Amino acid sequence: MALLILMPNKDGRALSEALQDIDPNLDIRIWPETGNKQDIEYVIVWNHPPGELTKYPNLKVIASFGAGVDHIFKDHDLPENVALTRLVDDSLSGQMCEYIAGVILNQRLRLTEYREYQAAGIWTPKEPRPGNNVCLLGLGSIGREVARYLANLNFAVSGWSQSPKDMDNIATFQGPEALGKAVADADYIVCLLPLTPKTTNILDNTLFNKMKKGAYLINAGRGGHLNEDDLMDALYQQQLSGACLDVFKVEPLPEDHPFWRHPKIYLTPHCASVTHLDKAAAQLHENYLNMKNSRPLLNRVDPTKGY
Ligand code: NDP
Ligand code: OXD
């Protein structure tokens, strides 16, 4: 019984060492040095080559090395009857709470604007930007913690999800018909959805036009949620006042992409919330033991929903 680390652009060796620190007896292989493929029962993946996962006849679990699983489902040649899991931990949600609050406060307090004034030697005190309403698209393991965090900072918070939610001090909306209503009063709209066929390009002109004029968009979900041309258009038309983007259709963002130099776009390099190696290793190991001992797996992904 062996565990394979299949993460072509990540440091597989560091994860292997963290797992070995927990259990020195683990049989760990790092792709492409798989050894006998029949031995592999548990694979940890991030952006694996399409079709690769069908080559392991005894595979039981595919574990995402992150919260998102869109990188798994973009492979249309996945083995059948293999369980999928993902990472859920308080470090991922905690970092995201600080990132989203930081972006909103930066915008509200005009900190980037004052940095530009400083460079130009301009002394012009202004009122903070008005607007206290935040709408979170996605109230899952990360979105609901961000919602609570912002409510504790006295923002008026609403959230949108697929199924109904009941949360103290958060106005909740669910389903496609309620999306326009969910965003209508928001000064800040934050996307923390998973990327699925239903959410692809959800951040488009149709939705922007349902927002308040001058709303500010934050996308920390996935680049595939955003219609990039529609964003450029909404910024030009001043329907949106600005956007902070952490995720992109192509990452790293290509050098010649117009977002790099857009004055109303603030961008960060997919770092809003970064997988914590030791916490991830502990959770992956726990699930490896669950698999080995035929116990229920933690943080299963529902392939019919795609998240
Ligand atoms: P969860 O699966 O726990 O939550 C997803 C939420 O989105 C749920 O509330 C779900 O509704 C809602 N949702 C899904 N599809 C729809 C839909 N069609 N309509 C309405 N609501 C929908 O995910 P996490 O909170 O753990 O993570 C969310 C995403 O954040 C990840 O998939 C990843 O893309 C991104 N992420 C980004 C990071 C970064 O650094 N930028 C870091 C980590 C994650 P319901 O509750 O009803 O099921
Ligand atoms: C994740 C991410 O999904 O890093 O964990 O975006």
Count the beta strands.
Answer: 12
**Can you tell me the residue ranges where pLDDT is under 50 for at least 5 consecutive residues?**
none
Structural class: alpha/beta
Distance between the termini: 27 Å
Per DSSP, the total helix count is 9
Q: How many structural units, i.e. domains?
A: 2
What does this structure look like?
Helices cover 29% and strands 18% of the residues. It has 307 residues and is an alpha/beta fold. The strands form two sheets. The protein has a seven-stranded parallel sheet. Strands 2-1-3-4-5 form a five-stranded parallel sheet, covered by helices on one side. Strand 6 (133-137), helix 5 and strand 7 (156-161) form a beta-alpha-beta unit. Helix 1 crosses helix 9 (277-292). The two termini are 27 Å apart. Residues 66-68, 275 line the site of oxalic acid (OXD). Oxalic acid (OXD) binds next to loops.
Give a quick set of tags describing it.
307 residues, 29% helix, binds oxalic acid, seven-stranded parallel beta sheet, elongated, Rossmann fold, five-stranded parallel beta sheet, alpha/beta, 2 domains
